[in-house]
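Why show two proteins at once? Because comparison is the fastest way to build intuition. When a single record is shown, students tend to memorize it. When two are placed side by side, the eye starts asking what differs. So, the first record is below.
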Amino acid sequence: MLDSPLKCELPPESCDCGPLNPDAMASLPSMDINHLLTAVDQDLQQQQNDNNNKHASGSSSNSDNNPERHLNVVLEDRELWEKFKEFTNEMIVTKNGRRMFPVFRASVSGLDPNAMYTLLLDFIQVDAHRWKYVNGDWVPGGKAEPAAPSCVYIHPDSPNFGAHWMKEPVNFSKVKLTNKLNGGGQIMLNSLHKYEPRLHVVKVNSRTQKKTILTFSFPETQFIAVTAYQNEEITALKIKHNPFAKAFLDAKER
């Protein structure tokens, strides 16, 4: 649905925003949600311009019933993520952007099937350190650089009905990580810093413009952004489990 699913931080806009779920946010640092709401507003405006009547009668739910109180998000491939976390996962960042592996995928349940939702992914810096790889271990290596501009990746199926998001795991395979702010649809990260992806589920009520944001994160998905893999164990796991890494293995054996 989207030509450019990436939205970066813009000046805050006033929004009538519904309450955040305190349980979902409990383990997260405090965050400024303005960039999330701005991204959703921009995407909705784009969708309306493309097809003004597409969802004119799509939602018949009563928001006062709060069906999201049963919302549950489960990380897919959890065991694979845990294997990488054991050795401190690494994700390559390049000028042109590199896709993640493992891919962030999650199963969502408990949404209102007839309500409209936008799903977004962003990445938060989890500590105040710059990291370095020394003698086979990652250790703090100084003060962290200022955080990169807050960019969010809007899933290209957004906005869509709750029934759509619940029918199969939501796949963020097209997310690309970069170390340059080039606006090409990538998430900019600082190399040698540790990050954690966060999934935001935004319920959009077109009648009142009110938005309810629920945020989920999984410690297993933390990683250090690198321009080249440092730990050979991580390299071996990427080759073993990522079918697209076979070319790397073939080249290495030549």
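Second record. Ask yourself what differs from the first in the token line.
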Amino acid sequence: MAPPSFAEEIEKASLFDFNLTLPIIMTEFLVLMFALDKIYFSPLGKFMDERDGAIKEKLNSVEDTSTEVKQLEDQSASIMKAARAEISAALNKMKKETQLEVEQKIGEGRKKVESELQEALASLDKQKEETIKSLDSQIAALSDDIVNKFWRQFLCFSVLHKILKG
């Protein structure tokens, strides 16, 4: 047996045989890559781009809506302020009207009390005068009685005095 040649030794030591296998594998890889790009990755990329566009559009509309919401909040605040002012004015008006009614009723009550007081004072004056008249007549009667008794006693004493003296 002859010693193996150097080329034979290298051929045995190689891991891969690069005859037609490498170009076939490369062609298969490129065809698979092209097919996957056209069948899978392109529609998926298109779908993702459309979704991104829709999300951006929604975000822009939300930003536009935020200014609209701000305007509506400002408008509602001004409406609430106007309503509060209107309610306050109505309450003040009602308060004044009620106060006027109360003052009017108090005035009427005061007049009524004053008239009743005047009537009561007039009645008391009348009773006072009647009492004074009745007392005057009683005083006159009493003074007449006292004078009569005095004169009786005086006469009794003078008669007694005369009887005793003489």
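One difference worth noting in the second protein: The first helix runs from residue 6 to 13.
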